[in-house]
């Protein structure tokens, strides 16, 4: 019984994978909070802005034969361009900025755990908002290209399939957000349990493997999947 109590106390004090409320404030008469998710998201966004400014500075002074940072920047842009073009075809130029920004934000958010942050993508509020932005883009293109057909297509191939088709459309942001959130949150919880419950000698050296998988490898895969599905759904509405 005493051992069980010690484990419970240990888990309460050392295992931490929760979102923390930091600064309360009043918003239209309701008390809301600045949370650890907001702070980590701002850090990721500021990092992206700084990297973008550094990249711009080196590109403005670009040499004919790229070296150093210029070479890295051009390689990243080319890889992202090929990634978007291979999926969206002739539509890739219009959506490259959005998909590229989306991929970089998700990737940097996912690997932020390597630097002691709680990944913003481990908060469903973040992943659901990103999925809603993608969903809005999908439906905007659906209405722009198909016009009234965006509604009549819900009754095809048979009218009684309307509820299923409607659920299929509405389920897009839910499935996108839950897939990303579930994978990142699982890694966050497992790493928190590892650091909080295992003896000190087990933690030495071994965490590098778990961080390499959950933060780096899995983080890159989830950024790829979210971006890929975004492009597939948008291209599907654009047609030929």
Largest sheet descriptor:
2 strands, antiparallel
Spatial order of the strands forming the largest sheet: 1-2
Order of helices and strands: HEEHHHHHHHH
Number of strands: 2
Domain count: 1
Q: Overall 3D geometry?
A: globular
How much strand content do the residues show? 5-15%
How many helices does DSSP assign? Answer: 9
Terminal CA distance:
67 Å
Q: Provide the gyration radius in Å.
A: 22 Å
Q: Give the helix level as a range of percent.
A: over 70%
Low-confidence segments? 1-13
Helix-strand makeup class:
mainly alpha
Average pLDDT score = 84
Question: How would you sum up this structure, described in words?
Answer:
The protein is mainly alpha-helical and 240 residues long. The protein has one domain (2-238). It has helices spanning 2-14, 36-60, 68-88, 92-111, 124-146, 149-152, 162-197, 200-203, 207-238; strands spanning 21-27, 30-35. The N and C termini lie far apart (67 Å).
Produce a short descriptive summary:
The chain is mainly alpha-helical. Helices cover about 75% and strands about 5% of the residues.
